[in-house]
């Protein structure tokens, strides 16, 4: 496939030509127009370049949602350096691991995250930290991002990144062992941007509300880069709490595209939403990703927001990240849609032999969005990639129209008494109980090396539900071999930054108790 840009700086320049006076960013009461954003990107790029950042250098970013995140990211990539956006909820030793793994010499960091950065410079190759929002934690050689924003100089961009150069490294959540750095090129990103723009019919008139963490691959591609690709606007909401503020920004700034995770849509579907928001909001498209949507959530949401379209998509960091999505014209409940244009998918068995429509197997993906590999991990790369095909680790079925239905994670499959049990099927049933806020089902080995099914349930505020009621309900809907051996009520289920329940943490809790 041919792409119109080689890199993100070319994309930003094109947005300025098409819509220079248009609003790139709404940041609270401030409007930042495209020409102003480019000026700031140029200033920051020049400052970083004079500080020593060069082509191919890894520049880590531990930055909260902000205008500075966006200008810093574009500045780093404009220089041909490789951005390394990091999860802002990581702890000190996790930060140290990533910085050493990618050998970052420069770090952009929000001042509010300074606590976890104490002593990091002494354990890594970091030379300088650029602090955003304050210099209280500065050490010798550190600088203030505000100086970069004011820098009255143009960068030397005579060497520009080409389409197969690295744009950024996204570290996976590390479900087993250390997190792995997925190497994402400009080609990978443009494959996503072209496909998503086409499927969702994004135009210059759209306004994207952004409140999910920008360091996450889903938000970064679909809600930060895509609006610039389409020369439209980003409405920046710096915190999801209180959620009423998100809704207020959606209403007052006239957002048209809203990206959330299932936990958000579950809450919105069941919460009391003011009538004026339901009538006067201009959202045409709600997009869900990051984890599977429960069928009950889709049903509840359509009742609340009949004018808008809720579409579920699917992706993973290794695919930059979007792989598939339902379309505006056609959605299927419980499906993540069809592959984006230009992508190939197959459902295969353990030997990578393609299976017929309707059979459960692992989803593999091929296309320009597939990563170049994992940083410094050739064996891990070989485990997931074969002849250009990426093994996703997700068990799916595909119907005769090409719609993909996620059955479960391959690693989450429970085998009990020789029978395959898919946790998601049980979770879907539990979600139908009105009192349930969240549910997670896992398998735990017993002393005979068989697996027992354990269901964790989080109730809504002030809701009441007992184990007997749950068991009686499940018996009506599930075969006996699928019934949980244990039902555990938790005050709150552990989640990652995008709201996905962390099943590995639940397993660790059970193992610690046994």
Automatic annotation (TrEMBL):
Start and end of every AMP-binding enzyme C-terminal domain?
425-500
Pathway, per UniProt? Lipid metabolism; fatty acid beta-oxidation
Major site of localization recorded for this protein = membrane
Under the heading PANTHER family, the entry gives: LONG-CHAIN-FATTY-ACID--COA LIGASE (PTHR43767)
Task: Read off the InterPro entries from this record.
Answer: AMP-bd_C, AMP-bd_C_sf, AMP-binding_CS, AMP-dep_synth/lig_dom, ANL_N_sf, ATP-dep_AMP-bd_enzyme
Q: Which organism is it from?
A: Neisseria lisongii
Instruction: State the name under which the record lists this protein.
Output: Long-chain-fatty-acid--CoA ligase
Pinpoint the AMP-dependent synthetase/ligase domain residues. Answer: 14-375
**Protein's cellular compartments:** Membrane
Q: Which GO terms describe its molecular function?
A: ligase activity
At the top level, the lineage of the source is Bacteria
